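Q: Start with the shorter request: fold the first protein.
A: Done. Sequence, then structure:
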Amino acid sequence: MTEAIRKSLRESPKARWTAMVVVSLSMFGAYYFNYALSPVKPILESALGWTSSDFGVYTSAYAWFNVYFLMLIFSGIILDRLGIKITGLGATVLMVVGTGVNYWAITAPFPAGAHVTLPLVGDIKTEVLLSSIGFAIFGVGSEATGITVSKAIVKWFKGKEMALAMGLQMSIARLGTALALAISLPLALHFTYRAPVAFAFILMLLGVIAFITYIVLDTKLDKSEAHIEVEEEEPFRLRDIVMIISNKAFWYIAILCVLFYGAVFPFLFYATDFIINKYHVSPSLAGLIPSLLPFGTIFLTPFFGGIYDKKGKGATIMIIGAVMLIVVHGFLSIPTLDNWIFAAAMVVILGIAFSLVPSAMWPSVPKIIPEKQLGTAYAVIFFIQNIGLMLIPLLLGVVLNSTNPNVAPNKTIIRKAVEMSYTQALQKENITLDAKALNIAIEKTTSGVVDSIVESASYVPTPQSQINPEKVENTIVSNNLDMLGSPEMGVTQEKVLDKMGSTFKKATFEVVTKEKLNIRYDYQYDILMFTLLGILALLFAFLLKREDFKKGYGLEKPNIES
């Protein structure tokens, strides 16, 4: 028996840490794509006419199928019945499919104003709906991959450095989040708003390759333990779900998960736009500030996980993280604190909080739930989390739109005027340009005008009741054409578009600032919602600690067996 145990592949540090790294890479691309379009929100508004409500619908779509069709629950059951290898491979392939649908949806040339009417939802833009469906398919694969990776780490690290391994796994995945927040907007500005999604598709394919590599390692592990005598476990049964959801401590962890992640993940969806609008940071640099959060967790989550492994205090760690969450969002909601350095400092502290709670929360689940039920337990937690991640971004978009009702219409005015300027200038000189290149030029000019105003202009907006949209559009077009004059003949298409773009950007900026159109979002109410979630998270963290004290789960004890 002892000799057999020594020959188990999981007893080799090199083997188990290699398995952890390889399986974690399958989630790297998922974390990237999850936030790939978040920094691009201003361009989606300018180029496609999306509103904050549209963006809220899109971000909430991640959880549609997981919640309404119970796909996460089914994923957990499939994982417990079919195992890590089959479930993980199918899940990573599903992420590829969802990303591909999303890319097609934002690339296809839908007719202007095309929309679909849905029950209970009403009218929704066609590209928003199809993009959301792609994101929802991706969400099923991403969450299924997530619970599969969690169970894989438990399999390799039970009784060893499990919290550290889970922390490192999250760190590798969050590199994808940091990459998305840092480069998605520059990619979109340099190429087109589709570029971040195209890059995500490539990462999804690499994720499938990574999981296939893990399957090889997992197969070797199973072979190495083929002759080890272990206590035979009962097969998973549906009644196990009842046992899981009847556990009070399980519910405290699940609700804490919803509240905590609900105050962080949706914040990251809107963070870049929030930084641009409140702190007047250049769009090309704004994504670097929220990217500090995942970069911080890359180092701190394994560090705190190591502390939990050796010292324990899991419930206490979650309480400290919740307090930090309240402090950060509370300060970010104060209107007068509008220096970008302060915002960067708050994001760093939020990153520390985001390292504390997950480093203790996920390794605590195996202390409460038997291993044979872990797949379903993680699935139920992720299912509950997905309800929050569906409703919270949707509510944030509605609140942002209702508290800033004039921003989206004013951006539409600018977009229409810029498009009319290009069309009339080209028709006047009888110049025909490539339609794709022209659309990209219109997109970049519109975004450039909006970004310049939000970053540098400061004025009290004119009440919307005093704005005549048609008059403003005509004024912008007239000013653009007067400043442009006649385009040079005999030059390349690129030079024609460059001259028109730079001229229209400057001329449109003059009119918009003179008319004092409101195109800056005020995020105060959204940030206050995050603060409330932090307060509730603190409450449930205390309840979890009390339950652990009563039932003796050992959440305050170390993970490493002495």
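Q: Next, the second protein, separately.
A: Sequence, then structure:
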Amino acid sequence: MNTIAHSLGAAETAPGTGHVSAKRFGRQFAHAADRIFAVLVEAAAAALIVAEICILFAGVVSRYVLDSPLVWTDEAASILFLWLASLGAVVAFRRGGHMRMTALVSKAAPHQQAFLDTIAVAAALAFLLLVLGPAYEYAAEEAYVTTPALELSNAWRAAALPVGLALMCAMGGIRLLRLGNWRLVASAVATVGAICGVFYALGPVLRDLGNLNLLIFFVGVTAATVLIGVPIAVSFGLATFGFLALTTHMPLMVLVGRMDEGMSHLILLAVPLFVFLGLLIEMTGMARAMVAFLASLLGHVRGGLSYVLLGAMYLVSGISGSKVADMAAVAPVLFPEMKERGAKPGDLIALLATTGAQTETIPPSLVLITIGSVTGVSIAALFTGGLLPGVVLGTALCFVVWLRYRNEDLSKVRRASRGEIWRAFRFALPALALPFVIRAAVVEGVATATEVSTLGIAYSLIVGLLLHRDAKWSRLFPMLVETAALSGAILLIIGTATGMAWSLTQSGFSTSLAQAMAALPGGAPMFLAVSIAAFIILGSVLEGIPAIVLFGPLLFPIARAMGVHEVHYAMVVVLSMGVGLFAPPFGVGYYAACAIGKVKPEEGVRPIVGYVLALLTGLAIVAAVPWISTGLL
């Protein structure tokens, strides 16, 4: 407040500098407002994550240990979850953390990049303002619904949507104020307003175009906005809102209802909890312990640390559901030693990125959880079925590693003694046991796929307190905030993608798609081949989760009708998306790997070709042999 008052006084008293002082006041006001938002919203989001962990853990203990189930835990968790998703989306919006495609934007000139970045904020603000009114109406309608266990008005839960949207609107305004370049902001806002005005004016014409509007909005508008760097969730939302508002007589409140349905599915509560678990094992040193043990076993063989990287990503993926968290936990431990042995940075990044794709099916994968949420496939079956496909692709990558490092100079490398291996094993044992604890708890029915993450969190906290006393516990709050931001970004995409998928289904597109896929020559093998090609492209452009939410409900029924086992099809789809997600030039996961390894993206383009070919070979084997996905079921 003192900063604001001081700025105001300066703006009033400085002669002849009114315009400059006003601009400076605007920026300082925006910075002060941003700090207030950060304190309040981030603290609330972090508290909600802690509350969710406590509620779900209490549910497991009361049911399995005390044999006295708490009937209200799922209901309370569901209410808080929508608030967590909404506030997490606000935190992500403040941090610029919503997923967007920047491959084309990054190639533009600096002044063009600045304009497109401002357009992205203005477009997001336009969508938020457009949907805010329907969100309020939806929350008001939900006031007439009472929850069965807690007997609360459902408006307490539904109010999270208009509150979250309103806070994001305020944050969007603050972000524009912080730019300080009024001309840039005005031109971006005017551009977005003009485009919206043109579409509104064309409304009567669009209504007469019938199904051609599917191409205009769901292909044209979505592709254009994604390519210029508008957040993917906003792109989906704008396309769906425009389609419903301008070409149908459907109440816009329906879009908010579908967003609510997509964002608040209780299965998806596993997303923030497993993200936090991944950050927790990195903070407590459990990930480093696993890597050190594997290095003691294989560090003395040619390409040994590359094999360690593959094995470590496989094990860490069995704890965390986030690939970025997995890569961030493993790479900093291994890369310095690998570089000392002569490995090129580009090759390291290429291997890191492709291991991200290879381990996409390792439970508890966020993509597998999403598939179970939107298609109804058993998550326990998906978790079991995902183990062997990861081994197959890992074997293919190991072959490439062997080819590249078979002549590696190991003259300066010392083989670990049996005593050192034993000490490393003892220190890593609690971490090595965690993936098996998680899987056993789900398979044996101790906890659901959502609740099991709380067991992993409790386990990791105990291990961290007793064995890894060098853990930096001051990082807990930033980790909770980071979890909320990443989860909010993911869940907002799921919400808007659910609305788009519903609109596509209502338009008859799903029926047409089913007929077209069924008419493909070659039956199930051709269907799988087309699915692989399609999801590689979708994974590179939309990332995995948005593509699954959009096309999973459409394609999984077709797969069943063609005799393809749903778990087998899920593995093929997830691995295909992983290849697209972690391969240049568009794969966002590839650029995340480059950021984690602090390597320029162009250095990894040539080395990654061999690894991608290995992934495609492994993917073809998984697609051709269903037993790999279903043999353990």
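Q: Describe the second briefly.
A: The radius of gyration is 25 Å. Residues 18-65 form the longest helix (48 residues).
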